[in-house]
Amino acid sequence: METPTADSPREPDISHINPASGETWFGHPRQLARLFSTEAMERFGYYGMRALLTLYLAQHFLFSDTTTTGIYGGFTALVYLTPLIGGLMADRFLGSKRSVKFGAIMMACGYLTLCFGGEAARPFATIEGQRFDVRVQGAGAARQQFVLDGGRQLLIRGNDDKSVSLLDEKGAEARRIAGGGFVAGGERSSVSVFLLLIGLALVTIGNGFFKPNISTMVGALYAQGDRRRDAGFTIFYMGINLGSLFSQILCPLLAVGMGSWGGLGWWAGFALAAAGMIVSWLLIQFDGGKLDGIGDRPADAPANRDLFIYAGALLAIPVVWFLFTNLMSYVAPAEGSGIIGYFLGLPVMGKIMFGTFLVSVPGILGWSYFNGSRQEFQMMLAAMVLITFNTVFWTLFEQAGSSLTLFADRNTDLSVFGLFSISAGQTQFFNALFIVLLAPLFSAMWNMMAKRGVEPTIPIKFGIALMGVGVGFLILVWGSRFAGPDYKVGLWWLAGLYLVHSIAELCISPVGLSMITKLSIARIVGMMMGVWFLSIAVAQYVAGIVAQFASVETVGGQVTNLKVSLDTYVGVFTTISQISIGLGVLLLLLSFPLRKWMHGVT
After folding, report:
1. Angle at which helices 96-114 and 306-328 pack, to 10 degrees?
2. How far is Cα 216 from Cα 213, in angstroms, rounded to an integer?
3. What is the pLDDT of residue 601?
4. Smallest Cα–Cα separation from 99: which of 113, 110, 87?
5. Please, which residues have CB within 8 angstroms of residue 387's CB and are 6 or more apart in sequence?
6. What is the pLDDT of residue 15?
7. What is the dihedral of CA 158, 160, 162, 168, to 10 degrees?
8. Interatomic CA distance for residues 259 and 257, integer angstroms
9. Burial class, 191, CB count within 10 angstroms (exposed 0-12 / middle 13-18 / buried 19+)
């Protein structure tokens, strides 16, 4: 979840007006209330959709875990990459306000497009090269899958050794298929898949126009040196988390229901996300003059380029669609192909992400070495080290929307004190809830520690955050020891993970952009901002790859053996925790030379 930061990547020219001199809202420019509400409703739509996406791919379209987490990782990666282009278009041509309006329209269209998923995919199984239809009966814990073999209906049961048994009506084993001989699949409408990817492309491109520019408009409310700026951004970003908190409860509620109520269908959840996005557009489009002079077109920008930019954004839709389809067709290279073989075998999106990151980091460092002073080079080196560790943090943290959501669906008892049950998608609200509750406390704590001269340095905060992610996964691993005979872990173990992860997030997220602006050479601070957002995009993509290691066999969207599923997740989460804690300790050790290279930046 997103956390407060007072830094905007661009400082707009507001020399012609000082909006802060008018009426106030809680001591801030009254326009902040309008932007607060606009952002809250936009995040309502985005996080509501995100809470559904993984489950929608796995249960409605019956994609395998590998395809599901790959699509999710690619989508969230592009969500962080496209703002670089959207911000540039606003700076040079459109202005922030026009960009926000256009982005809101595209995102609303994207959510509405996701409503047209059509009928659920029909499951089938390929057994030793022969295809059989699969019938799914029941719901929830009583859900069962049967292979239709002639006139017989054989129950599918996964075994601990990853073989599959087919049981007759008396429960006797009619056939056993060795591991790898049973391959589940889904017969899905090509039109529905096309609309799914078009919807995701619309959201991705629209987000690129909306996300960076709404923050720029908030920055334009304050004159240079206005000390209310930090507090204003804190209020603004609280709207982000409030919007996401409610959407991650309500969108899954409408889509899949809660307890014994089965919900209205996936379309209803996406429709509610679209409604939130439409409200966001209405707030900015019909502002009653409240935002006059805020986010207008740059004075030196040509006024005849708008249609070309809008057309270019629409023409980018098939490009993004191609990236998604290429991602779906990706097949991992054979073992022993080496690093070069692995890179060459990556989908186009992976090549772009890794290639750009691997070239830009050493390239910028080389430029800094030859063109900057010794002190500037050391500060840039410290920044690149922290960017690298930040990439690892978000890679592991962003399991929330993929592997952790699937874990919640398959191996978590979602009962709340035995009174009612929530859905797997709704478990994502824990992070937003903890951020809303803890962010003010952390802000006060850092201020108090700073006054006493004991506030941790940026590298130490990053190290604590990495260790915190690992500890969160260890909590879930520990909780697995108390799983019942149904191989499900109590909901509160998952809540404990999100609590620790939220604390870790508050140690790293608010200081990221600030760190970049302080450590970068002034001539290339914009480029460093681009590398920062690129690192987060790479993290989102790699998060999808990591989640693929937790893939388990499913039939009709359901796992065939919950014990195998639990063991798989526990194994992956254990590895993640060990790596994260180890890297956190390493960064704590590196904090001493990094502090020296940072030359007083804290």
Report:
1. 40
2. 5
3. 79
4. 87
5. 361, 516, 531, 532, 535
6. 44
7. -30
8. 7
9. exposed
Residue 230 to residues 18, 20, 30, 222, 443: CA-CA distances in angstroms?
Answer: 17, 14, 16, 10, 11
Interatomic CA distance for residues 68 and 73, integer angstroms: 9
Task: Give, in degrees to the nearest 5, the angle at Cα 52 between 50 and 54.
Answer: 85
pLDDT of residue 28: 83
Q: How confident is the model at residue 599 (pLDDT cuts 50, 70, 90)?
A: confident
Beta bridge pairs of residue 144: 137
Nearest one of 67, 127, 58 to 425, comparing CA atoms: 58
Q: What is the pLDDT of residues 215-273, one digit of tens each?
A: 888 888 888 777 777 677 778 877 888 899 999 999 999 999 987 788 899 999 999 99
CA atoms in the 13 A half-sphere facing the CB of 143: 18
Task: Name which residue leads in pLDDT, 348 or 556.
Answer: 348
Structure confidence by residue, pLDDT tens digits, 88-136: 898 888 999 999 999 999 999 999 999 999 999 999 999 888 899 998 8
Determine contact, residues 545/67, Cβ cutoff 8 Å.
Answer: no
β-strand partners of 164: 158, 177
Tell me which residue of 270, 211, 275, 245 sits closest to 49, measured CA to CA: 270
Q: Helix, strand or coil for residue 156?
A: strand
| Cα 88 to Cα 83: distance, rounded to the nearest angstrom | 8
pLDDT attached to residue 271: 98
Give the integer Cα–Cα distance in Å for 530 and 515.
Answer: 14
What is the distance between the alpha carbons of residues 182 and 555, in angstroms, rounded to a whole number? 10
Backbone angles phi, psi at 444, to 5 degrees: -65, -40
